[in-house]
Amino acid sequence: MQPKTLTAEVVSIGDEMTSGARLDTNAQWLSRRLGELGIEVTFHSTVGDTLQHNIDVFRIAAGRADVVVCTGGLGPTRDDLTRQALAAVVDQPLELRQSALDHIQGLFARRNREMPPRNEIQAMFPVGSLQILNPQGTAPGVDVTVRRGDHSTSRIFALPGVPAEMKRMFDETVAPRILEISGGSRTHIEHEVMKFFGVGESDMEQRLGEMIDRDHVPRVGITVSAATISLRISAIGQSPQECRQQIESTRAEILERVGDLHFGDGEEFEQYHAVEKLLAERGESLVSLELGRSAVLADWFASLGQSSAYRGGFCFANLDELAAVLEVDYAAAMETLRRRAGAQWLVAVDAYPPLESNADSPLPAAEVTLIVIDPTGEVFSTTSRLGGHPSIIYQRIGKAALAWLRHTLAESPAPRPASPTAES
Amino acid sequence: MQPKTLTAEVVSIGDEMTSGARLDTNAQWLSRRLGELGIEVTFHSTVGDTLQHNIDVFRIAAGRADVVVCTGGLGPTRDDLTRQALAAVVDQPLELRQSALDHIQGLFARRNREMPPRNEIQAMFPVGSLQILNPQGTAPGVDVTVRRGDHSTSRIFALPGVPAEMKRMFDETVAPRILEISGGSRTHIEHEVMKFFGVGESDMEQRLGEMIDRDHVPRVGITVSAATISLRISAIGQSPQECRQQIESTRAEILERVGDLHFGDGEEFEQYHAVEKLLAERGESLVSLELGRSAVLADWFASLGQSSAYRGGFCFANLDELAAVLEVDYAAAMETLRRRAGAQWLVAVDAYPPLESNADSPLPAAEVTLIVIDPTGEVFSTTSRLGGHPSIIYQRIGKAALAWLRHTLAESPAPRPASPTAES
After folding, report:
1. DSSP symbol at B421
2. Cβ proximity of A224 and A201 under 8 Å
3. Of all helices (H) and strands (E), which one includes residue A369?
4. Angle at B388 (CA atoms; ends B198, B356), nearest 5 degrees
5. Whole-angstrom Cα distance, residue B225 to residue B268?
6. Least CB-CB distance to A302: which of B24, B30, B295?
7. Cα separation, A387 vs A312, whole angstroms
8. Cβ distance B219 to B233 under 8 Å?
């Protein structure tokens, strides 16, 4: 059975959002997730901590959307009014739910603290509403059904504003309930994120063709962050197995079309993770040299921590300065650095171009030389013309250097692997 | 005359926002600016590119807010419908404005291009509406007044979604018009941003006391970004002079209360700019060394470009590796680095602590040693306990190192300044 197409509205609650003190990122996250469930998000609304305004916003949202997901206003303080607003919208009193109270008291007990009396409000629910378990925090969510004049209904899911709690509650409880509402037996959802580098978004879209259409089954979403392209496969099915099968066949089709650009999987996986993994498998290590106006490679690799695959990073205005610090000749500087750092590989950017200060429009492409030195001391260099918005241009250049390193690594025979019992 | 307190709603238009493909940052920026004008933002709404939905959103907004500022939907393509929606809301036809058409054709002519016919729509305005000049782009803004049932009115300002164009149009045209609506003769606004480092937000608020109250004249807004605190003074007056006077006296009062934490002025000004300025004035230079899991100092200083005050950055897992690269003794590594790099000063972080992967809650404070070596080779070191959210902890540590460097610089007598005619 084909699920019914539902519309949704995302509501964000809090003076810190309407005043601009905080940037709302929950609404974006929820919109993407709802889209993956096949639900069209038609409106977002943001409202401050004023009871009547909250009631108004919920009435409007319930009137125009089948599903409303709201965040915020579930805390224990007096300006947290979501519970009261929902009670007013469904015209029901709040009642204490013992199971919710036990959960909240249990959380305080685990931290060796008494529950303050004001937290009791977090165990209060409009009569007839459902709870949404919050495994991490004291604010359970509220799930109410609003009856509309035309005998249809709208379902409101209220979640806390803390992103980590909100996300887990959405995935664990709200998404399955929405799949139930949308009808049919397909109540499981599974995701997989594949990562790519090397083309722009529109080229990627062209190569993927109908695979990224809205009605493709399973849905494949494309997002770009600082020149890294993510494809997110969202499979909805009757069982986890059915979802996995959809993902596997879609994955194979994607790899057939754009496999040459694929470098790994997972929301947070970037090329520097891929390079670190490759080098660790080969038992080799890397040193980075960045000339010009950035040190993104050093910062990325440093974040990996005590990886034996990364020996260190160097950032100078130009190569003369490296030569001076190493007390060697200009021409020998890079190779000396690689050797003394005890690294098999060196990757260098020569050089990150200058930016106009406060520039806010894409830069014209600049020539950048990307250099790799391999374990034998051989130098592989390529010159690229790279441009882009000032906020991402240095990341794009750093990523192009990593793509060049990955390419060179792929062409280089792996050393004989260290024996697994070498330490014995 | 005291201005009337107005309420405002911010509306964002575009499928890319409701679907979550793009994060809406315009609404936050506009909310802050409106707050600085003394206007309370009570709602945000986001709507996709559907004409009827746009009309509905504008009707609701005009019904509940005195001022509506919307962004998006003013482009030349068929899914840009803001103009048409506004015409429907005020029940007026669209008419061609020759002055707007001339402006658009002029922009194309300057780029040596013919104006495509579809851009003509950008010169169409609802009868009775005002234009908002867009000096940078082809989309002029629209300023319409909506009459409400109770004979009051609401004013809608429609701006393009491109942030650079939107911001300039708001500051140059919309803000003065809003000050006119709010009544009185105070139609000028001036801003000043002061930057601070060294305490948390709540301590800062406590020390500033009533200065950051909402009704303080002039208004002082506080924001925090990765442990840097910004105070934004927004003075509204009858003349630029009156605004300047308000700013100067408020600035003096702020410096009296928290001057010890102040390191500079301007939206984009950070401690590394302050350090670079200090060193350039002294004719001295700096090298940075970062041990552990980050290279934020190198990345910040590199972004300054060909500054003679920054000699380079080094990032290693530990000091042994630096010693190996320099081929010197462990104990001599830092001082050797400073000398060979030709720098008077060295700043070092030992060390950025590891993070749990995917951690999403504040880290317990870790002991970090911050080291400065001065031009005589003397070592100044301090140990701090620093914690915070994983997304900002490395920046906070880097900033603490810069605060330590600034402190040490302030205690160190400046060298005799280079003669201004030294090159002659």
Report:
1. T
2. yes
3. strand A363-373
4. 150
5. 11
6. B295
7. 27
8. yes
Cα–Cα dist A63/A9, whole Å: 10
- At A417 the pLDDT is 58
| Minimum-distance CB partner of A341 among B44, B53, B321 | B321
| B168 neighbors B141 (Cβ within 8 angstroms) | no
Asked if the C-beta of A202 comes within 8 angstroms of chain B's C-beta atoms, the answer is no
Q: Which residues, in sequence order, are CB contacts of B34 under 8 Å at separation 6+?
A: A20, B8, B10, B41, B67, B69, B178
Q: Which CATH number fits domain A188-265: 3.10.350.10, 2.40.10.10, 3.30.70.2860, 3.40.50.150?
A: 3.30.70.2860
The pLDDT of residue A225 is 87
- What is the tens place of the pLDDT at every residue in A61-114? 999 999 999 999 999 888 899 999 999 999 999 999 999 999 999 988 888 888
Percent of chain A with pLDDT over 90: 67
Round to the nearest angstrom and report the end-to-end CA distance of chain A: 60
Query: In the structure encoding, which two tokens stand for residue B363, read together?
Result: 């880290």
pLDDT one-digit tens code per residue, A326-369 = 999 999 999 999 999 999 999 999 989 887 655 566 677 889 99
Within its chain, how far is the Cα of B245 from the centroid?
A: 24
Classify residue A410 as exposed, middle or buried by CB count within 10 Å of its CB (0-12, 13-18, 19+): exposed
Residues sharing a CB contact under 8 Å with residue A171, sequence separation 6 or more, in sequence order: A33
Report CA torsion sign: B383, B388, B390, B395: negative
Domains of chain A, by residue range, sit at 7-181, 188-265, 271-411
Q: How high does pLDDT run on average in chain A?
A: 90
Q: Does domain A271-411 have CATH number 3.40.50.300?
A: no
CB A345 within 8 A of CB A338: yes
Region of poorest pLDDT, from A270-274, B119-123, B136-140: B136-140
Total count of residues recorded for chain B: 424
B356 touching chain A per CB within 8 A: no
Q: Could you tell me which residue, A180 or A317, shows the higher pLDDT?
A: A180
CB pairs under 8 A between A and B: 218
| CATH of range B7-181; options 3.30.43.10, 1.10.10.10, 2.60.40.10, 3.40.980.10 | 3.40.980.10
Cβ-Cβ contacts under 8 Å, A285 against chain B: none
Kindly list the strands in the beta sheet with B153-159, ordered across the sheet, starting from the edge strand earlier in the chain: A130-132, A141-147, A153-159, A67-71, A7-13, A40-47, B40-47, B7-13, B67-71, B153-159, B141-147, B130-132
Structure tokens at A331: 């021409």
* Radius of gyration of chain B measured on its C-alpha atoms: 27
- Measure the CA–CA gap between B288 and B276, rounded to whole angstroms: 12
Who contacts B64 (Cβ-Cβ below 8 Å, separation ≥6)? A56, B7, B9, B42, B43
Flag whether pLDDT at B84 surpasses 80.
yes
Residue appearing with tokens 């920026």: B29
CA dist., res. A217 & res. B257, Å (int): 61
Interface ipTM: 0.80
Q: What tokens appear for B103 in the block?
A: 């402006």
Question: What Å distances lie between residue A28 and A194, A213, A318, B311, CA to CA?
Answer: 20, 20, 42, 42
Q: Which of residues 20 through 79 in chain A touch B, CB cutoff 8 A?
A: 20-25, 27-35, 41-48, 50, 53, 56-57, 60, 64
Q: What is the dihedral of CA B51, B57, B62, B67, to 10 degrees?
A: -100
H/E stretch holding A127 reads: none
Residue A293, judged by CB atoms within 10 A of its CB (0-12, 13-18, 19+), counts as buried
Residue A392 CA, distance from chain mean position: 17
- In chain A, which residue's Cα lies nearest the Cα of B22? A28
Q: If phi over 0 gives left and psi between -120 and 50 gives alpha, with beta otherwise, what is residue A287?
A: beta
